[in-house]
Amino acid sequence: MTVKYNLANLSPAARVRISCELNELGILFNLHEHVLSIADVDEEAVDNVIADQELVEELLEADQREARAILAGDMSPRCELCGNQPAAELSLRRQVGMVIVMSSYRAEVVLCGPCGENAYRDFQKQTAIKGWTGVRSALTNPVVIGTNAANIKKHRNQIAELNMRRNQ
User: Residue 128's CB: how many other CB atoms inside 10 A?
Assistant: First the structure.
């Protein structure tokens, strides 16, 4: 006896993922014109595979709706660390000076106000402590510190503007 599933409501990518997972599980199936046919003994396993893919589809659709709203300016992106809103892009640099060479680090992240402040303090502290050893590092360290200060000010203004828009 065979069981049939209509997969027309799923995206082509979801149907491919279902096919791949059924192959991995060793389940024999036939997928034709968006209709999946399987033996009734495999029904429970296939139900689980399809339910998982439907959940993935729902999550992807929710992410796409949120991305469209962000691009349209209807909402701000979420903080990359905690997920809170509003969040804005923040660019920070950190420098570690060594006697002959130096290492630079750059982070361009979308952060909320509190996470942005924490990242700014951490980057400034590390640069202030470790950024002076070496001639080249000593010359560029004030520029790095000043650039970070300007970037956090811009970030604060963006967050304040987003909060004002949100409260209107």
Answer: 14
Residue 7 above 70 pLDDT? Answer: yes
Q: Which residues pair with 5 in a beta bridge?
A: 36
Start-to-end CA distance of the chain, whole Å, equals: 60
Distance CA 100, CA 28 (A): 64
How many other C-beta atoms are found inside a 10 Å radius of the C-beta of residue 122?
13
- pLDDT tens digits, 106-124: 999 999 999 999 999 999 9
1, burial (CB in 10 Å: exposed 0-12, middle 13-18, buried 19+): exposed
Residue 129: is its pLDDT beyond 90? no
Residue 47 CB neighbour total at 10 angstroms:
13
**3-state SS, residue 99:** coil
List the chain domain ranges: 2-72, 88-167
- CA dist 80 and 92 (Å) reads 15
Residue with tokens 């409260």: 167
User: Which secondary structure element, helix H or strand E, spans residue 96, and what is its range?
Assistant: strand 88-97
Top CATH class of 2-72 equals alpha beta
Looking at residue 1, what DSSP letter applies?
Answer: -
**Could you give the CA distance from residue 92 to residue 117 in angstroms, rounded to a whole number?**
11
**Distance between CA 125 and CA 71 in Å, rounded?**
34
